[in-house]
Amino acid sequence: MDIEQRLEQLQKRHTEAELGGGPEKIEAQHKRGKLTARERIQFLLDEDSFVEIDKFVTHRCTDFGMEKQKILGDGVVTGYGRINGRYVYVYAQDFTVFGGSLSGTQSKKICKIFDMAIKNGKPVIGLTDSGGARIQEGVESLGGYAELFYRNTLASGVVPQISVVMGPCAGGAVYSPGITDFIFMVKESSYMFLTGPDVIKTVTHEEVTKEDLGGAVTHSTKSGVCHFATDDEKSCLLLIRELLSYIPANNLDDLPIVKNNDPVNRTEPRLRTIIPENPRQPYDVREIIELIVDENYFFEIHKDFAQNIVVGFARMNGRTVGIVANQPKFLAGCLDNNASVKSARFVRFCDAFNIPIVTLVDVPGFLPGVEQEYGGIIRHGAKLLYAYAEATVPKVTVILRKAYGGAYCVMSSKQLRADINLAYPSSEIAVMGPDGAVAIVFKNQLTDAADKDAVKKKLVDEYTEAFATPYKAAELGYVDEIIFPEETRFKVIQALEMLKNKRDKVPPKKHGNIPL
């Protein structure tokens, strides 16, 4: 065979591999409104930057006639490329080949990508579209999943991991995305669940659709499994590109810096009036976030889950910060089980990848109720407390209005190693609100009073004047500075610049035992 024939043979193999399951199955994928694995990668990565690895790999199964059904690539496309000029590793399951089912060989391809990513310190993006384990391979396929879960665990906190569910993801397959940092889903075309509707109907006699059980809306609003739910695949892939612009390539790299013309000392008079004088009146904390960050742009994460707390990324003086803020628009900004878990996971991600944390506090306490107590609010609230206490990144806290009780402690208080704690003049830092405090402290006086309402009002007013302020906390050094609201942006950036070279550590240990 001469060189021309060899080159022709190579080209033939490339063409064969790129066809996956063949034209008919590609057409069927398109009819479902879905892109193919290679089309997704091409759209996600910078133009002409993708380098494919293991393109000609095939499975090794010889049972059930599988030795006669070998397709180059074996149902997953793996390789590396660039997003906004920065390298990433990527794998995309190909539903046109055996329904994207995971084989032992497919697992090895994906694990190779993870090993390279960990060694080279680059993010991993997994595009999932699979019917699950390849049944013909039995335990080899299950072992392949376990190998993948192990790589997910090794990579956790070392390189960012992003899972993109663009079709089915069922059974054990869900645990790989479950370990990763961020999960994206597409509405009405992707779903995740451990046991499907048919099994549930057989075992529990409950009837539920795939969409209601494990669709993008369900997981982005009810379970919190999914961080982003988009309307279509292309908008999903574009959102991934945006997310990556905020985060470093690994746990040792510097944060990306994006220059802008937003003045560091920009003042915002509107911050004086956004927070209502009535402490029981709600407002949207996003307005405050957008006024203090660069170019008024906030990239929110987990937007539709646990809406009583807001988390996401922004830039301040060009550098990425993670923002955690109580949201008075929902449940008065109380911390509940879901909000605690949502924010704790975000804080731990920021700490793992050296992203400074800015916390905006307006919290009346933990949400009371039997459901919350039975649901483990002690354990879940402790997760957030643990996350803040353990975090060694720069931490700047701004108390906007209420900071009551244990929730004050949990929300990045000075005692949890927050570096700089600021407060608005209108903030209230206390064990509880004035009404509750007066009812306890002056119980006997109120019982004996002839006009209880008048006496209580007088005592509440006096208590509010003396104690429902930030000045007691400032006297104790629990608040470093009481600031004018319009100067919030400048004060926070000043603190972050001062903390840029912060060094902190936790006592030597194998690892802590966070109350999972």
Structure description:
The protein is an alpha/beta fold. The chain has 3 domains: 3-244, Alpha-Beta Complex (2-enoyl-CoA Hydratase, Chain A, domain 1), CATH 3.90.226; 269-429 and 469-498, 2-enoyl-CoA Hydratase, Chain A, domain 1 (Alpha-Beta Complex), CATH 3.90.226.10; 434-467, no CATH class. 39% of the residues lie in helices and 17% in strands. Strands 10, 11, 12, 13, 14, 15, 16 and 17 form an 8-stranded mixed beta sheet that branches. α12 (337-352) links the parallel β12 and β13. The protein is elongated and about 105 Å long. The model has no long low-confidence stretch (mean pLDDT 92).
List the helices and strands and how they pair.
Layout: H1 3-18, H2 23-31, H3 37-44, E1 51-53, E2 76-83, E3 86-93, H4 104-120, E4 124-128, H5 139-155, E5 161-165, E6 168-170, H6 175-179, E7 182-186, E8 191-193, H7 197-204, H8 210-214, H9 216-223, E9 228-230, H10 233-244, H11 285-292, E10 299-301, E11 309-316, E12 319-326, H12 337-352, E13 357-363, H13 370-374, H14 377-390, E14 395-404, H15 405-410, E15 420-423, E16 428-430, H16 434-441, H17 443-448, H18 452-467, H19 471-475, E17 481-482, H20 488-498
Parallel strand pairs: 3-4, 4-5, 5-7, 6-8, 7-9, 12-13, 13-14, 14-15, 14-16, 15-17
Antiparallel strand pairs: 1-2, 2-3, 10-11, 11-12
